[in-house]
User: Which sequence fits this backbone?
């Protein structure tokens, strides 16, 4: 796992101006089946498509409920693409890979076959 | 009250909305969600905001406003005009606003999800201020943001259950839908209390109405009640109570016109009764009511005058022409004019406005000038007026209504069907004769008092209104110049009669003198006859004496001869 998974409350990773860098934030509420599935799917997905140019921040709203309003979170789980802009929200357990691709607007890597 | 005493009462959370708490006997069900639905522009959000603000300021119950439509700053700006300081309440920790933005285009669904985030946000907001009240405005917006309605419904059901479990009194607003109360059928989930707001246009006049559709476990007023939104916020008017249980105020108040007081047995109107002054245009209705206002204010009573055809300043100016200084009372705060065009609102709205103004001003005397300016369907008109009169009587307020009688309209139709509700009815009539018009006045009825049945002529001058006895005689009722002419005529007539009598007296005296003269003559004749009789008797006596003498002489002679 090469992704940088930080916990909420820590300072955000510097977006470092790389246009290809993905800064993702996953909102969950406790260790529910949907949350765990989403985390698992997200990590797998990032490894496959965004290896080396992403960081994931997991926010557990059970612990930090005050963070829900900031990103307009209603549904759980919600994945927010902070960068690159524009901001995108993807809800659900990320089991539908096609939709996640569309939702995150992922451009394949240049060196990808 | 239909509230049964034996059954424990449902706990209620007062909304602080004037009138609403009365028709629901206490407010919304405490610890439960209530649905407020209605079409766009009905005042749902305002209702909800008022509920929260009053909760925080009046009842010590902090609240959470979860807005799905407007941003917090917009909400605050919208209600600032009503004097609600949302920002201040937020700063004081009595209110939390959370704007939930649902943007379909920003959301991609990629599998199973739930709305736990909403619960967490609401829960966080509730905990942050210790809220007892919650508003969700308008939660149906969620349906446009998410594709799976069945999941949403399940989540909403869970949300309402959660609200109940937390013991939160919630107001959920919903847009009116086709054939049902809300677009998404929210009434299915929020079934404890449903309030419908309505904004109806009839004859180009909008009237807002409110109806409690259902209220589980509680009695409630079932009618449609008009409500007002203005600078004072929302007020609902439970003006349907038609019970006649009001107390009777004692005392008599002067009409301000001495002559009119004299026509009424007790010397004025009973306090707390309703007085109708009807008459055609220019008969002096407003002047008469102005007199009454002046008299009341001079006694230190508070007067509220609703005028529909003139401004307050105009009435003050006009009243000056009969020597009344109403502006003085207005300046001292005893008198207030509330002027509005009759077409400004619907009937119910006018009533609603009056109700509110009366409750705020607490007048002793209310003048409505003229009642006939209020137009509407006859049935509605009568019901409204009935409630208006009821409202005033219920508060022991002396009410003076003026009513314009149309020229040529049949008698019965001119009183708007309210005359039976009036305790005193004074009719002003213009009598037209001999090329002039005269104002006359008479009392048609005065409940509970003896009153004059006479027609009086009334004169308006710089000294006020003065009543003059009209001429009543064999030639009919005469007023104005005709009265003066008739009076002059009568004076001449009586002079003529007096002269005639004097002539006859003189005649009789003359005749008596003549008779006395005759008597004197007869007496003289009588005396003459008596004289003659005495003379004759004397002559007779003399003759007898002479004869006797002759006889004696003869006898003597004869004797000598023998």
Assistant:
């Amino acid at each position: 796992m090469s992704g940088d998974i930080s916990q909420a409350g820590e300072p955000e990773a510097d977006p470092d101006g790389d246009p290809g860098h993905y800064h993702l934030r996953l909102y969950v509420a406790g260790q529910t089946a949907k949350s765990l599935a989403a985390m698992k799917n997200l990590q797998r997905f990032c490894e496959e498509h965004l290896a080396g140019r992403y960081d994931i921040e997991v926010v557990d709203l059970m612990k930090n409920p005050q963070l829900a309003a900031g990103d307009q979170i209603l549904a759980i789980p919600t994945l927010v693409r902070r960068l690159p802009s524009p901001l995108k929200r993807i809800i659900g357990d990320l089991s539908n890979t096609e939709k996640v691709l569309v939702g995150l607007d992922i451009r394949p890597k240049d060196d990808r076959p | 009250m239909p509230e049964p005493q034996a059954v424990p009462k449902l706990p209620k959370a007062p909304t602080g909305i004037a009138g609403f708490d009365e028709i629901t006997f206490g407010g919304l069900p405490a610890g439960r969600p209530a649905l407020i639905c209605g079409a766009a522009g009905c005042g749902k959000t305002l209702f909800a905001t008022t509920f929260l603000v009053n909760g925080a300021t009046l009842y010590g119950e902090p609240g959470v406003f979860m807005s799905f439509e407007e941003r917090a700053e917009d909400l605050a700006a919208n209600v600032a005009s009503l004097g609600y300081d949302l920002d201040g309440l937020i700063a004081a920790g009595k209110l939390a606003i959370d704007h939930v933005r649902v943007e379909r285009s920003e959301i991609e669904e990629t599998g199973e999800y739930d709305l736990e985030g909403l619960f967490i946000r609401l829960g966080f907001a509730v905990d942050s201020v210790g809220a007892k009240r919650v508003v969700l405005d308008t939660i149906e917006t969620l349906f446009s943001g998410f594709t799976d309605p069945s999941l949403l419904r399940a989540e909403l059901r869970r949300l309402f259950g959660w609200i109940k479990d937390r013991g939160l009194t919630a107001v959920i607003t919903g847009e009116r839908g086709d054939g049902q109360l809300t677009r998404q059928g929210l009434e299915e989930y929020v079934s404890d209390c449903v309030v419908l707001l309505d904004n109806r246009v009839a004859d180009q006049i909008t009237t807002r109405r409110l109806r409690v559709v259902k209220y589980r476990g509680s009695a409630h007023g079932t009618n449609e009640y008009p409500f007002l939104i203005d600078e004072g916020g929302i007020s609902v008017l439970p003006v349907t109570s038609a019970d006649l249980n009001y107390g009777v105020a004692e005392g008599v108040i002067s009409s301000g016109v001495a002559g009119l007081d004299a026509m009424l047995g007790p010397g004025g109107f009973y306090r707390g009764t309703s007085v109708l002054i009807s008459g055609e245009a220019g008969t002096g209705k407003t002047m008469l009511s102005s007199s009454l206002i002046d008299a009341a204010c001079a006694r230190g009573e508070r007067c509220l005058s609703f005028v529909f055809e003139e401004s307050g300043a105009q009435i003050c100016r006009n009243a000056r022409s009969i020597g009344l200084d109403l502006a003085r009372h207005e300046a001292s705060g005893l008198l207030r004019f509330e002027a509005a065009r009759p077409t400004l609102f619907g009937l119910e709205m006018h009533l609603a406005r009056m109700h509110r103004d009366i409750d705020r001003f607490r007048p002793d005397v209310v003048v409505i000038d003229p009642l006939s300016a209020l137009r509407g369907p006859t049935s509605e008109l009568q019901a409204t007026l009935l409630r208006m009169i009821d409202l005033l009587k219920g508060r022991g307020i002396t009410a003076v209504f003026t009513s314009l009688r149309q020229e040529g309209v049949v008698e019965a139709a001119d009183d708007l069907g309210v005359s039976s509700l009036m305790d005193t009815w004074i009719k002003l009539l213009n009598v037209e004769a001999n090329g002039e018009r005269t104002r006359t006045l008479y009392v048609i009825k005065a409940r509970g008092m003896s009153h004059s049945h006479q027609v009086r002529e009334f004169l308006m001058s710089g000294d006020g209104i003065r009543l003059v006895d009209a001429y009543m005689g064999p030639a009919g009722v005469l007023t104005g110049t005709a009265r003066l002419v008739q009076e002059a005529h009568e004076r001449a007539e009586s002079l003529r009669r007096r002269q005639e009598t004097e002539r006859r007296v003189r005649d009789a005296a003359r005749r008596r003198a003549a008779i006395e003269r005759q008597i004197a003559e007869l007496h003289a004749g009588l005396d003459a006859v008596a004289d003659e009789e005495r003379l004759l008797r004397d002559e007779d006596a003399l003759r007898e004496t002479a004869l006797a003498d002759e006889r004696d002489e003869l006898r003597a002679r004869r004797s000598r001869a023998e």
Remarks:
- Chain B has a mean pLDDT of 83.
- The longest helix of chain B spans residues 480-561.
